[in-house]
């Protein structure tokens, strides 16, 4: 078992948001790599698009008003798992 964070991206299959979820997953893996324990894509329905870190929701399409860009998700994730980390141009 790892103590590294587990990211889940729940997406609506009926809305065809798999590619969007996979793109964000790839962006997180590219930036945070081995700092993450897992990035899981979880199919759902009802218009869901939600990103969570260890069960704590950091983005919800319905409450946050749409879809996040990679910058938004990376900053929110960084603020939880490594607040001291500099994300370079994303922080400027």
UniProtKB/TrEMBL annotation:
<dbReference type="InterPro" id="IPR036249">
    <property type="entry name" value="Thioredoxin-like_sf"/>
</dbReference>
<dbReference type="InterPro" id="IPR011893">
    <property type="entry name" value="Selenoprotein_Rdx-typ"/>
</dbReference>
<protein>
    <submittedName>
        <fullName>Selenoprotein W-related protein</fullName>
    </submittedName>
</protein>
<dbReference type="Pfam" id="PF10262">
    <property type="entry name" value="Rdx"/>
</dbReference>
<keyword id="KW-0676">Redox-active center</keyword>
